[in-house]
Fold:
Amino acid sequence: MTTLTKPATEATIRNPRSVRRPRTAGEWAFTILNVSAFALFAVVCAYPFYYLIINSVSANDVSALGEVRLFPIGIHFSNYAEVFTLQGLPLAASVSLARTVIGTAATVLASAFLGFMFTQERMWGRSFWYRFTVITMYFSAGLIPIFIIMKGLGLTNNFWVYVLPFIVQPFNIILVKTYVESMPRTLQEAAEMDGASIWQIFWRIYLPNMTPILATVAIFSAVMQWNMFQDTLIYITDQSLYTLQYLLYMFINQASSLASAAQNAGGDLSSIAGAATSQTPTSIRMTVSVIVVLPIIFIYPLFQRFFVKGIMLGAVKG
Amino acid sequence: MFAETPITTKKGKAMKLKRIVAAATATAVVALSLTSCSLFGGTQSNSTAESGPFPEKWDTEITIDVFDGLANQMGVQPGWFAKIVKDKFNMKLNVIAPNVAGGGDTLYNTRVAAGNLGDLIITDQGKQFDELVKGGLIVDMANYYEQMKNAAVFDAAVEKVNDGKDGVYGLPTQVSTIKPTEPSEGLSSTFGPMIRWDLYKQLGYPEIDSLEDLLPVLKQMQDLQPTAANGGKTYGLSLFKDWDGNMMNNAKQPTTFYGYDEMGFVLAKADGSDYQSIVDSDSEYVRALHFFYEANQMGLLDPDSTTQNYDTLFSKFQNGQVLFSPWPWQAQPAFNTEENLAAGQGFMIAPMKDQTIFSYGASVYGGKQIFAIGSKAKDPQRIAAFIDWLYSAEGTYSNNSQTQGAAGPQGLTWDLNSAGEPELSDFGTSALLGDGSAQVPEDWGGGTYKDGASWLNVTTVLPIQVDEATGQPFSYQFWPTYQAATANAVSTDWSAHMKDATSTMDYLQQADQILVAPGSGYVAPADSSEIQTLRNQIKASIVEFSWKMSFASNQSEFDSLLTQMQDTVNGLGYDKVLQVDMDNAKAQNDARIEVAKEFG
Amino acid sequence: MTLPQALNQATALAAEESPVAKKARRSRRERPTGRGRKSFRLFLWIAPLMVLLFVFSYLPLYGWIFSLYDYQPALGLNGSEFVGLQWFQLLFNSPTQLQQIGQVLVNTLVMSFLGIATSILPLIFAVFLNEVRSTRFRNSVQTLTTLPNFISWVLVYVIAFSLFSSSGLVNNVLQDWGLITTPIKFLDTDQGVWLTMLLWSLWKGLGWGAIIYLASISGIDQSLYESAKIDGAGRFQTMWYITIPQLMPTYIVLLMLSIANLLNNGMEQYYVFQNAFNKQYIQVLDLYVYNIGITGNSLSMATAIGMLKSLISVALLITVNVISKRVRGASII
Structure:
């Protein structure tokens, strides 16, 4: 229908109006309102994290009372020192890194491929297999049967238990499928006419054009892999396979482990007396949270650049 | 037109389809068969047991999985205790702690379903022990037991534990040769009204006749010191919500001051003279709720109680913001630091005139937990030797749970002084009496003392048991050398006021304010699944109403909530569960009478 | 034609096929194989992944048989007692119990409906954020608003306690300013529990949920905006006629899927905030199941409840799918 307009900066493409029309009072008002609303919400979201940071460097006893709210009091870094010298931390960090990278790559690829394939009307049983996949989001068989199967497959105390079960993720597949459906069909048809196989169509044409949704799936998957500790809890007893999150979970959840021990003690609390009197200070638990979240904050901007308009789509037309 | 060469013939399609179906079925069958053995049956027991004396040393290093229901840490045991175990047994301990892993019995269930709970197992008697034997998950260690000299000292307990089982499957914990009618706790009781002694002194030691009389005293104490050193408000009482189990945990504690302990929903008196249902309008439990209610009316109850967790409360104790605690082992370690004691501040037990504090008698038959050896263990003989060592004097010193007061390894934390009496070394004093952060010398294993302490958190022999080699108990708190060294302003003042008692326990015994429940080692049988489900629903209601009653705005609201609670639990089948609990309580009492007769 | 019509036509054209492709498609259809060729070969490409899914999601369903036994893992299934439908009966035993379950279901449904009602908010968030010109500001806001998602609920409660407890920041400030004399009970009250939980949920999930829509916006064909600009569309008209409709398919699918999740609110958020005073309104189904000791020895009971929930969810999904087919002409799955 049209040819590409003159090469333009992203700003003008996003808001062509800005080059053409002067800003009215109404637009000023809108901009101010819009920006302030977001700024306010961003502060509300960021404050708790800021709270964790200042508490992690504040004197532990003041922090424990919840008094450190705006500025750190009694700055010290020994909490960080203590956490970083936790037994097995470097190894756990590398395990977490490995599972995040490998798991995310596998999930992104599988989700993209499956999302694409499920748009293929010609596929045998497409509708059936799609439903087969999606329905799995709504039922769960329970822990024990899954555990027994994992054990039977040799996946306990095995690194691949971190990757294999997560490769096929219905939610991600749905996202990709919806995205692909919004892409012009001409892409595939043109390629088929040129004799491309389905894999080539996927790999060479669709995949490169799906970057925003791939980035989304990658973020979701990476975060899930990085934060997951329940599988370590159940399947792993070999310390060399502990993930960072699990190590820190054990550290943080001391209080709740004490609670469950107390409930089971049924009256005679002397067995938990030791743990009850050596509680990890709250500020150390906050330190741990900060350490866990920081990598994600650093990686996040890398993904953000994928949320930029794809100019190329227009090139297919005509 | 299209590059692909599709299988267009029907035959081709059918063949392909068949192959796929076959492949899928094969996968499924393989997966199922791998898992079916564990699913449909228990595992086979493995009863090969070498006999003969234990070797002096072992050549190959092994790491054993220790499934420990009491442990509060998870992973490979580090530090000085690990070094001792490595030197003696060439063994490392990989502790698997269900408490830490979370999720209730999840870890236990998954490991058991897979057929391997662990190599060394520390778990509860009763249901778990029974099903482990039945399911073939633990071995019969009768052959090893013959060689276990240290454990054999407590043969009566071993026999009782394995009563009804064909063989020796479990070994007891918390054993001693002390009479069951004697308290098991050591210098400090498990329960007791602990108050800030310095403030009490300032008030001139007002009389406290009964539980409710604590309130005006606490009020005066609170008025004396409305803010703590850190600027936070002080409160007479502060509660927390995360330990609630069968009932509101905090409300059960005052009942122990009168000699009651819980058995399900029953409060049983230590001497068997009374059994109460906790929801009865005139039960001690409701009395405790009313006590909290009054406290709240007087402004003594910390409003954060309803929303705070244990660790927040613990910080408040450390900062001196709470003036009362029902547990000596909480208040004193938290607040009675050297600094505070030097400043004349500390928690000590109050002289409540009519108290008869519940105490757990030394159990001849051992405590709730037992040791067992897993059926998949690679070197069961070594594990048996290790367990035996835990009963020895050396093992007791090294292993016993930290706050119980066992002295630690000889040569590191203590040694015999020139008079032949055990005395804490300088290192021992700083390690045991401080916060445990003292650095252990490298040749003992390095690391801090508290990090290197045994993660097993299990008491084999009670620390108050006397070590024949030294003539003093294993617990350093009983040593005359220790008591001489640690007198301070608070304790001397307290002692002067309390019949010159040398410790909490000493006072209670002198004043006859202690009620010892003879240690019978009774373990209640497991609930049937039906009872358990009912119990879980009922206890949730009881906890909810208990909190509301404590914070009721007036007496009529308190009363109406009480009636509501009673109606609700009755509607949920409370009678059924209560009957079970009553029966168990009476059986427990019978066991206590019997053991008192036989060994007392 | 009017601006809306023009925009609609532009959208339609963008989705149209080229004439060549149209011809190819027609000729495909004319091939003589009845229903249209179904390529088994295409399926083979995804077959291994389907096997993976089968092994991890469907195979464990044999465990549903535990609900008919008094399953004790140590004894295995053979050693456990067969009890038939006992667990299901136990659930509906006494009137008091039914009343409790009734209240729990009310809580669950209310929270789910509130969630559904506010599910449009991430979309709106994305659309308006897109209107901000500065890339730096946009990216910062995006990063910061996703932070709450990474803080576990346990810690959220620690922060909530510090801010809203009787001795917390808010009460201190209010008292210092003389606005109140006694602390307001934010956390241990039964007033407004649903609203508070909703707000916490939104705080935690809004920025994160907007990611999907921001990504989708990036994928919108620029030519649409250009033609709109040419036709003189203002900011709001662009939003209404182009951006939002482009996001609708994703939104509808997610909405329908969340309806099937009506009974699953998750447990952790409600667990950390629960106390005796708000319990009546905060206890959703997942929390109730946890509270009555599911992770303990009542494994079979847990399985029974899990089974019921799964069946209900799948039923809801199918219902929603059918409705979607009738109303929109297209099913969601």
